[in-house]
Amino acid sequence: MLSINISSFFKVPYRPNNFSPRFVLLFVSSMASSTKVTVEYAKSGRSSCKKCDEKIPAKSVRLGLVSKHPQGFDQTKWHHLDCFPFSSDFVSSVEDITGFSLLQNKDKETLEKLINTEIATLQKVSDANSDKIDRKQKETCAQGDSEHELSKQKRLKLSATEEEPVLEMAFSISDVRDTYKDAILLPKWRAFQTIIYLEQDDGLHASSKIAAFDFDGCLANTNVRRVGADAWSLMHPSIPEKLQSLYNDGYKLVIFTNESNIERWKKSRQAAVDSKIGRLEQFIKVAGVPIQVFIACGLSKIKPEDPFRKPKTGMWNIMKKQFNSGVPIDMDQSFYVGDAAGRQGDHSDADIRFAQAIGLRFYVPEEFFEKET
Fold it and tell me: Which of 97, 161, 241, 323 is the most exposed place for a label (fewest CB within 10 A)?
């Protein structure tokens, strides 16, 4: 019997409820260290199978391969269970599957049986065809270096066409602006590509410990129908005290928030910018501690996807590389709090996926701000 024990790999304490006994799997190839492995329940029916091009129903089994772009972003290729390209590379390290401990027991059993069956089948096929494979390898080597080079170039070309283009993320001071397109930013706020950030809040210090938060629905109660710097309230009364305690414990506080209205409202972009930044500045005053802020203004349904909009990790990468004074981040002590956790009634699962992609412990606001200190 194959033993699977990967609870130590998955640090997200939030466990989805009310899901059917179907799940999502991602297998990592042992041949490529940049590929990730995770398992979770499917949260929407928007993904399409890379083999058959059919939609993958919500809460159904989907298998995916997650590869790293050179610029640090994850790219996932999803498959139906029956369409997944099983190979010995993908199933040789099943103990590395993160999130396995979050599955229901019957799903764990199903997954383990699946892996055992696939491994046995692959081994049987491998043994039966070992001689044939050896002969074919020898024939391939005998074809000559020129044919091998042509084959290699063809594979590289095909591989390149499969990857979606990504936006350039190299940070340059010369590209920083005090306006976002036609909107003027308040003092200390700057724009780079599709993000707006608070250049330096008074008293803010670099730290190896990062306490990161979403804003709308997590720290602040806001409404898309209401515009204005005053149109917000605290989500939880304990927030100021909690943030002050973290700051005193040596944490750097950072807000990562999406705000597509800044991009979408072309005719009233200044109002959208003033509203978002105004709320953030008022919140920081109420919190009484310095906070670093990054606002992703890109739209959600564009190709190529905006690298800064959560669940993409662009805002985190910019903070880590450019705005933490070179101090290495202690991932074991750092964490992220957000309300978009894919629960019933949540508007999305962007926050939990953002945390997972980075490797941060994840909390929902109710758990973090309402639990006993």
Answer: 161
Which pLDDT value is given to residue 35?
A: 61
Q: Are 164 and 305 in contact (CB under 8 A)?
A: yes
Q: Domain boundaries in the chain?
A: 7-128, 132-162, 173-370
Residue 332 structure tokens: 């074991």
State the Cα–Cα distance between residues 35 and 23, nearest whole angstrom: 20
* Beta carbons of 333 and 309 less than 8 angstroms apart: no
Q: Give the total residue count for the chain.
A: 373
What would the pLDDT profile of 102-143 be if each residue is shown by its tens digit?
777 777 777 677 766 766 665 665 555 555 555 655 555 555
Which tokens go with 115? 């892996």
- Fold designation for 173-370: Rossmann fold (3.40.50)
Angstrom distance (rounded) from CA 23 to CA 167: 32
pLDDT tens for each residue of 204-218: 999 999 999 999 999
Query: How many Å apart are CA 71 and CA 170, to the nearest integer?
Result: 9
For residues 16-25, give the mean pLDDT: 47
Which pTM was predicted? 0.57
Axis crossing angle, helix 239-248 with helix 269-287, rounded to the nearest 10 = 70
One-character DSSP codes across 184-200: EPPTTEEEETTEEEES-
**Cα 4 from Cα 17, distance rounded (Å):** 22
Helix boundaries (H) for the chain: 88-91, 105-128, 130-141, 145-162, 239-248, 261-264, 269-287, 314-322, 350-358, 365-370
Q: Is a pLDDT exceeding 90 seen at residue 174? A: no
Instruction: Report the distance separating Cα 300 and Cα 287, nearest Å.
Output: 30
Nearest to residue 230, comparing CAs of 278, 169, 176?
Answer: 278
The fold of the 7-128 domain, in CATH, is: first zn-finger domain of poly(adp-ribose) polymerase-1 (3.30.1740)
Categorise residue 220: left if φ over 0, alpha if ψ from -120 to 50, beta otherwise: beta
